[in-house]
Every structure is written in C-alpha cells, then in structure tokens.
Amino acid sequence: MTEAEPYAWWPDLGSVVRALRQAGHAAAAEALEDAVRAGFSSAELLGGVGVALRRHRRLRAGLDADGRRAWDAVLADVHRAYPLARLGDWLLRLFGRG
After folding, report:
1. What does the longest C-alpha to C-alpha distance in the chain come to?
2. What pLDDT does residue 3 have?
3. What whole-number distance in Å separates Cα of residue 61 and Cα of residue 94?
4. How far apart are CA 98 and CA 14, in angstroms?
C-alpha cells in the first residue's frame, strides 16, 4: 500500500497514521495500516481499525491537536458501525484503562 492510498477514501485515518509517525509511534501507525490491508469488507476494516485504536489508546494524548481530532473522527466512524464498542471504550476510560 502506498502512503496515499488509504487516505484518499479515509483522510482522517491518514491524519492519525501521520500524527503517530510524527510522534515516534511507527508500530501503532503500522498496526492501523495492517488493519486496513487485512480488511476484506468494510466491517472487517472498521473492526480492525477499532481494535488497533483501542490497543494504542494511550498514545492519543501525545498527538498534536489535528491528530487527536482525526483520532476522534476515526473512532466515531467505528462507533457508528459498532455502537456497542462505544460502551466498551467508555468502560475502559471509567476504570482507568483508557
């Protein structure tokens, strides 16, 4: 996948990947790109991106303002596809794991 391919159709995801790389979190950026490559359907893609964001949720705080805004937008897309994921994310934050 080239640098620009996934970002043409999901620019917020591209912003998150770039922000993670700029903040020195290449492994997290690669996890998001791997989720995109592994998704055969939109459901798999959104699910994989959601899992990657949850695994690396603590990195969000270290991103610049644009990166955090894009992170929130991508997570909102995931929550629209999987409404129960919002509850899980809320519980993680409530119990200090997010």
Report:
1. 38
2. 57
3. 16
4. 22
DSSP per residue over 11-27, as a string? HHHHHHHHHHHHTT-HH
Band (39; pLDDT cuts 50, 70, 90): confident
Structure tokens at 40: 């055969």
Give the DSSP letter string of 68-96.
HHHHHHHHHHHHHH-HHHHHHHHHHHHTT
Q: What 3-state class would DSSP assign to 41?
A: coil
- Counting every residue, how long is the chain? 98
Instruction: Return the C-alpha torsion angle 91, 62, 44, 76, nearest 10.
Output: 60
Cα-flanking dihedrals φ and ψ of residue 29, to 5°? -60, -40
* pTM for the model: 0.82
What is the CA 4 to chain-centroid distance, rounded? 16
